[in-house]
Automatic annotation (TrEMBL):
Active site: 81 (tele-phosphohistidine intermediate)
Gene3D superfamilies: Phosphotransferase system, lactose/cellobiose-type IIA subunit
InterPro entries given in the database record: PTS_IIA_lac/cel, PTS_IIA_lac/cel_sf
Protein's name in the database: PTS lactose/cellobiose transporter subunit IIA
SUPFAM superfamilies: Enzyme IIa from lactose specific PTS, IIa-lac (SSF46973)
Residues forming coiled coils: none
Pfam family, one: PTS_IIA
Origin: domain of life: Bacteria
Length: 107
């Protein structure tokens, strides 16, 4: 039973890491596109990034709900890493969105 729960948490953590990693890649591609003046491509990449981020956030939210319902979650460095990645990508996305606006104004 314990191993099944641990494996489930790892699966959730790796799904978060995978999705937010893809979100980060897409948001950076959006920035590079904007830098080249391809604002349509930048917007498409931003939307792609948001979709990946939402998936990662949905997985994270499922763990929060479980804990809020009284389930005791075990500490896991992998889960901490997943949360760190989630928060980092959220910050990067906000900054890149603002940078794209600056590129638009400069053109």
């Amino acid at each position: 039973m314990v191993d099944e729960v641990k494996e489930e948490y790892y699966t959730v953590a790796f799904n978060i890491i995978s999705n937010v990693g893809a979100a980060k890649s897409s948001v950076m591609e959006a920035l590079y596109a904007a830098k080249e003046g391809d604002f349509k491509g930048a917007e498409e990449k931003l939307e792609e990034s948001k979709q990946f981020f939402r998936e990662g956030h949905k997985m994270h939210k499922s763990l929060i709900k479980r804990e809020a319902n009284g389930e005791q979650l075990q500490f896991s460095l992998i889960l901490v890493h997943a949360e760190d990645q989630l928060m980092s990508v959220e910050t990067i996305s906000l900054l890149v969105t603002e940078m794209i606006e600056l590129y638009k104004r400069a053109k």
